[in-house]
Prior knowledge:
- The complex is a heterodimer.
- By secondary structure, chain A is α+β, with helices and mostly antiparallel strands.
- Chain A has helices spanning about 5-15, 40-50, 105-115, 210-215, 220-225, 235-250, 255-285, 290-310, 330-355, 355-365, 370-375, 380-385, 395, 415-440, 490-500, 510-520, 520-525; strands at about 20, 25, 30-35, 50-60, 70-75, 80-90, 95, 120, 170-175, 185-195, 195-205, 320, 320-325, 460-465, 470-475, 485-490.
- Chain A has a five-stranded mixed beta sheet with strand order 1-3-6-5-4. In chain A, strands 2-14-15-16 form a four-stranded mixed beta sheet. A three-stranded antiparallel beta sheet of chain A has the order 9-10-11.
- Chain B is α/β, with parallel strands linked by helices.
- Residues about 15-30 of chain B have low confidence and may be disordered.
- Classes of the chains: A alpha+beta, B alpha/beta.
- At the A-B interface, helix 4, helix 8, helix 9 and helix 17 of A face helix 1, strand 1, helix 3 and helix 4 of B.
Amino acid sequence: MTVNTWFAEKMGNHGIHSTYLEDHHPAHMPCLEIRLIDWSSAAQLARQLEMRFTALWAAEGGEHDEHLRYTYMVFAHPKHRHVMLRTALRANEPAVSSISEHFIAAMRMERVIQEMFDIEVSGIPDPRPWLKHEHWPADAHPLCGDFAADTVMPRCPGEYPFIRAEGSGVYEIPVGPVHAGIIEPGHFRFLAVGEHILNLEERLGYTHKGIEKRLQGQQAEQAIHLASRASGDMTVAFGWAFARAVEAAAGVVIPARASALRAILCERERMANHIGDIGAICNDASFAFMQAQMQRLREDMARLHKQLFGHRLLMDLIKPGGVSVDLNAEQNLLLRQQTSALAIEVESLRSIYADHSGMQERVIGSGPVSLEEAISIGLTGYAGRASGIYVDERVEEAYPPYDRLNVRIPEGRDGDVATRVWVRFEEIAESARLIETLLGDLPDDDICSIWQAPDAGVSGLACIESWRGEIVCWVRFGNQGCIDRCTLHDPSEVNWLGLELAVRHVPVPDFPLNNKSFNCSYSGNDL
Amino acid sequence: MLRILKKALFTGVKSEALAEAGQQIETVGPELEAVIKKRFRGSLAIRAVDAGSCNGCELEIHATNNCYYDIERYGIHFTASPRFADMLLVTGPVTRNMETALKMTYEAMPKPSLVVAVGDCAANCGVFGKNNYAIAGAVADIIPVDVVIHGCPPDPTDIIRGILTAINRT
């Protein structure tokens, strides 16, 4: 495959010198090394070229230059695809300038490299720790090579400085980390006036499980179990992103049947989560009928998954090189019948939802995110599509099998709860159509290629459209096929910002409705 | 409104009949109901706490509430506060960042109270591992546990069976 030189040429025109790194794959998502001094101006150029920011992380040098630390950032252009930029930091005092003024979504990721790698990010608007809570020792930087994975950290005193508001009538509502419901932990600090939210501040990191540290040193076959548990409700998409990244690094091409099966699993996951969430949103508006119906459909899906694939939530079905499950003709028919029956039933429920005035009263106009705001933070997935960002990796990257499918993207405009729900209804119908198309024309070959890990130092990048939005996964191999550094980026990292924007001026009691309409992952964010 | 009624009518009752054989939940069901009636006066309040799970277990705990399992028909319901909960259902390996919150939730419950650890991570930290800087331990390392339910994640039936086992221990 030819090397994508588009961004390198653009940078050249602006006096930013870059070097193409040959040990990174795939070539159409090149990794370019730039000088430290050009870091922020490269981000500025990406902004000018209307690229979107997708991820930022850091890594140590690995096998060859273990004392060096690098920072990486990824941008994507609808036509010219992804580009990864890397820069080497000074060995004694690692520091890099912040790109938050160009892409605000980078800030929380910069906070993470600051605390995990002891890298100073100069000019960062908010230097507070993010995943590292106040009780961690100040000198604990878990992703540094000299920090042992099994370190038992002492508990230190400390306090997290929340944003405060002054003025009469402003009050604070602290919520969490244990929420009133069966949901993940996180802390929300509301500043409110009367009934309305003035500001929401999210405080996450409660489910930080050290996933990136633990992935180091594992073989890809073993590591995929961990990577696909970054967020349990996106297990197929995370497994796919990880598998695709290691396959890119190793140059392993998977059979067409395997990629078709991956897409079938991924679209089923999309349907199940959209169905479940629509029910939950209706439940938050006290429309219990819809909740009961949607949970019933979700359960029907889980039961068929158990019957056909052996797991209700589709965990551990993707492995490096392909998939571990196949469908015979009879199972294929069963899956096709259920998918089309579900789509029909969801459509009939949708008309009940749309005609229910009490429900519509709650969702229409609640929690709007304008197109301008959505672009400024780079809102992704259905939340982005509701606000007018019609980005979808299944169309832009068109990784197999989407290269032979014509994925239709719902185009929302209003960016409120109602539109986010509308997008999800549309996506259920579209996923059902894709599944039926894929099942009707399942390529007749193997379900797995032979997996062989690449040489030390080789890395791969993959971007997969999960039901929440774009997942970015980058893996670099070390000796004996062990993973030397792996980073996973959940779309929630960006979309959590969308929720903060959406709920300004929203009445406090409408917060759950808005929260559910975004349904960001805590676990995927905290890793 | 008519369409809602029509849909509800045609959907019918989906809760799995207690008498049907072959389904694990049926053998559990009547037993559970009887125990709850006797020991908890017909009502068992559960507080669920995610101490750091990947959210897979949460999906399955949610599923115990759907019309097929309908855990509420046995008098079991999930409550928003630990202050009036009889049982704590804990998922996930306990992360260092959730350790204090989990302890506080447990301490806020009236005693005696029951604790059920749901899923492999709650049981032994699962794929995330005990020797991990970010993890404080399995649930039993942090608070006293009565029953452990294995599985990644456990099926809703297993979760209901685990709840019954815990009740029988009191």
